[in-house]
Every structure is written in C-alpha cells, then in structure tokens.
C-alpha cells in the first residue's frame, strides 16, 4: 500500500509536469501545437515503437545518399510494441494511450520489485525511500510515456530478484523477455559470469554446489545467446549481417560521422567531441570512471549485496563498450537503479525531503532539456 501511494503521488507530479510542457509545446514533427497528453506521450522514440506495431521491420534497409544504412526500425526491439499492439487489438490510433498506461503499470510493478530486492539487505525505511527516489527520479516521466524503459526495468528487476533467490530457471524467463525489450542480454551475461566467479571465490563461506555451478554457466551462455539473438534476426531478415549494429551507429553519425563499432572507443570519441581541448576530455572521463569504481566500494553500496553491485558494474561496463555519450546517456543509466538503494541510506528527514524536492526539480529540467521540443533540438531523451 505504501508503494502504491508513492506511485500515485509521483504520477500526479510527473503528469502535471508533462501537461505544463505540453501546453507550451509548439507544433512539431509529431503533433500540432499544444498537444493533448497522450499525443505528447508519443514524441521521439514512441513514434518508432508505433511504427513497429503498425508496419513491422523493413526487409530492405534504407540507405543515405552516400550508401550508408540510415536510421530505421531495427533499432527498436519488438516486445513492447507487440504487447501494446495486442492490447489495442491492432488499433494504431490507441497506441500512445495504451502504451502510456502499460508503461505506468510496469513502473508500479518495478517499484514493488525494487522494494523486494532491497528488504533482505537494508532496513524497510531505507528500502521504501529508495522506491520513492525511483518514482520521483529526474527521468521518471519517461516511465509513463510510450517508451519501453519501464518494461525493461520490470523484467530486469525480476531477473535480479530471482538471481538473488538463486532460482535460475525463473530468472531466465525474465531475461528472455527483457532481451527483446531493450538490449540487456549481453550485460546480464557479463553480470552472471562475474557473479559465478565471485561465488566460486567465496565458496568456502557460501557453498557453490555443482548443481548451481551448472545452472549459472548455462544461464550465462543463455543470456549471451539472447543478447545476440536480435542482431542475428535483423541480419537474417535483411540479408545484411551487421544490420542492427549499423542501424544503431546511424544515430551517432551527426557527432562523429560514419564509423564502425570498436568496443570501448565511443566514450573516448565522445570525450574528445564534447571537450576538444586536449587532454581535458580524457581526464574527465578517467575521473568519472574512477569515481564510479570508488562508489561501488562504499559501505552503503556494498550492503546492497553482490548481485546488485555486480549488475550495476556490468551495465556501466557495457555502456562504456558500446554507447556514444550524448543526452540519451541519462536514460541509458536507468538500469543502474541499484545505486538508489545506497543514496537512500541517510535517515535524516531533511535529507530525504530535500532529495525528493531536488528529484522533482530534476524532472522539470530533464523534460525541458530533453523531451520538450523547441524546433531545433540536439538533446533527445
């Protein structure tokens, strides 16, 4: 009931912020001026999800004038648009309405699962405040528009909960759905591999019987296979082996031109692009990575348990390997949600009230900077 009340309160706040920005929204690619709530909830990638629900994926990849693979629907995985399409009985006009409701309901489910993840490790008050931080987070408006983030979060939390409880078969059900919602299979495979190593090294304190060893190894391989499944499907359907990767790379073309994906180079490229004065971009990147690594060693983070710490590290390693840093990085950091459990540790009422106020102000700033569209916008959500 407490989670439900927090959910309702947070949605009132986030809905109010979205409505204010919708009221001042000028005409855009997606809708006319001053769109209603559900039209506003269909901006940006939501349009791609509706495109997938309506027309599926192109068998022939679109090309630019100079022959490069252009932006297309293969970058958007099918679980979310297919689910929403089924719930609308294939009525495309209802996609943004039902999609927004589905996203909000997955957020409620995520909030309930987040509390379950934390209660074995921290006191109930800290767990509940961590849920509040998730629900009021600066990016929480994304959880109630027609985006797949809250669905990904729900299945990710379910997978981590069953990993925590060492029920690997049920975990893989969640991993399978998650892997076709957002690209999460490969970082989860990395997390499972690191988890298996950690369990093996600590087997004297925490027994790691052969049955669990086999289950963990199989789950790691299965998660890796699921991570590669969508790129393989895209390659087979289009006849272009790198269809998925090339499609994803087309979104970074305005920053660094047409490039190949070389793991762990995108953030170096990004550091030099955002801060061209050498070597300060690289220095800042090193400081950020060192700061994150140090944060994982803090007592408040260590108390969250190995599963959540290992997952958080694995997700950030994955982002460092494949993602070019731009305004979407804030959205892509959502799966690092376990850190909210550590941020929730202080018990001061003033601290907790202040954090909710700051988070709410962060929502206003994020919607203004990244979601609201002012005609020329290079900061997509």
Q: Note the total helix count.
A: 19
Gyration radius (Cα, Å) is 21 Å
Q: Low-confidence segments, ≥5 residues, pLDDT <50?
A: none
- Gap between N and C termini: 31 Å
Q: Could you describe the largest sheet, including whether it forms a barrel?
A: none
C-alpha geometry: globular
Average pLDDT value?
Answer: 97
- The count of DSSP E runs of length 2 or more, i.e. the number of strands, is 0
Tell me the series of helices and strands, N- to C-terminal. Answer: HHHHHHHHHHHHHHHHHHH
Relative helix content: 55-70%
- Domains, number: 1
Strand content: under 5%
Structural classification: mainly alpha
Transmembrane segments: 92-114, 126-148, 168-201, 213-233, 280-301, 308-324, 353-374
Protein name: Integral membrane protein
GO molecular function: alpha-1,6-mannosyltransferase activity; GPI mannosyltransferase activity
InterPro entries: PIG-V/Gpi18
Short description:
By secondary structure, the chain is an all-alpha fold. The chain has one domain (2-371).
Describe this structure in words.
The chain has helices at residues 2-23, 37-40, 45-55, 79-87, 95-118, 124-136, 149-164, 168-179, 185-201, 210-238, 243-249, 253-256, 266-274, 280-295, 299-302, 306-322, 329-332, 339-343, 349-371. It is mainly alpha-helical and 381 residues long. It has one domain (2-371).
Characteristic terms for this protein:
single chain; 381 residues; mainly alpha; globular; transmembrane; transferase; Integral membrane protein
List the topology elements.
Blueprint: H1 2-23, H2 37-40, H3 45-55, H4 79-87, H5 95-118, H6 124-136, H7 149-164, H8 168-179, H9 185-201, H10 210-238, H11 243-249, H12 253-256, H13 266-274, H14 280-295, H15 299-302, H16 306-322, H17 329-332, H18 339-343, H19 349-371
Helix pairs in contact: 1-5, 1-6, 1-19, 3-4, 4-5, 5-6, 5-7, 6-19, 7-8, 8-10, 9-10, 9-16, 13-14
């Amino acid at each position: 009931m407490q989670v439900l009340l927090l959910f309702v309160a947070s949605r009132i706040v986030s809905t109010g912020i979205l409505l204010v920005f919708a009221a001042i929204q000028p005409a855009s690619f997606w809708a006319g001026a001053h769109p209603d709530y559900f039209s506003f909830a269909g901006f940006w990638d939501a349009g791609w999800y509706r495109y997938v629900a309506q027309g599926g994926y192109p068998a022939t990849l679109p090309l630019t004038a100079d022959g490069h693979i252009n932006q297309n629907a293969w970058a958007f995985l099918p679980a979310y648009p297919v689910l929403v399409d089924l719930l609308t009985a294939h009525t495309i006009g209802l996609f943004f309405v039902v999609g927004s409701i589905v996203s909000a309901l997955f957020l409620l489910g995520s909030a309930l699962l987040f509390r379950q993840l934390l209660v074995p490790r921290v006191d109930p008050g800290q767990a509940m405040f961590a849920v509040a931080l998730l629900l009021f987070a600066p990016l929480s408006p994304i959880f109630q528009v027609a985006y797949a983030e809250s669905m990904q979060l729900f299945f990710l939390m379910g997978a981590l909960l069953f990993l925590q409880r060492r029920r690997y078969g049920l975990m893989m059900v969640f991993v399978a759905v998650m892997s076709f919602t957002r690209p999460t299979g490969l970082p989860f495979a990395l997390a499972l591999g690191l988890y298996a190593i950690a369990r093996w090294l600590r087997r004297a304190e925490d027994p790691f019987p052969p049955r669990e060893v086999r289950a963990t190894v199989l789950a790691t391989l299965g998660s890796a296979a699921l991570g590669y499944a969508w790129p393989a499907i895209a390659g087979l359907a289009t006849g272009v082996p790198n269809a998925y990767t090339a499609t994803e790379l087309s979104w970074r073309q305005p920053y660094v031109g047409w490039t190949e994906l070389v793991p762990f180079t995108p953030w170096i490229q990004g550091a030099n692009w955002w801060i061209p004065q050498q070597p300060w971009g690289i220095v800042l990147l090193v400081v950020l990575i060192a700061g994150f690594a140090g944060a994982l060693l803090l007592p408040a983070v260590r108390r969250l348990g190995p599963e959540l710490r290992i997952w958080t590290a694995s997700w950030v390693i994955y982002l460092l390997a494949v993602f070019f840093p731009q305004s979407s990085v804030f959205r892509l950091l959502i799966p690092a949600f376990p850190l909210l459990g550590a941020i929730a540790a202080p018990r001061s009422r003033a601290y907790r009230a202040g954090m909710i106020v700051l988070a709410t102000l962060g929502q206003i700033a994020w919607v203004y900077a990244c979601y609201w569209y002012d005609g020329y916008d290079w900061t997509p959500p």
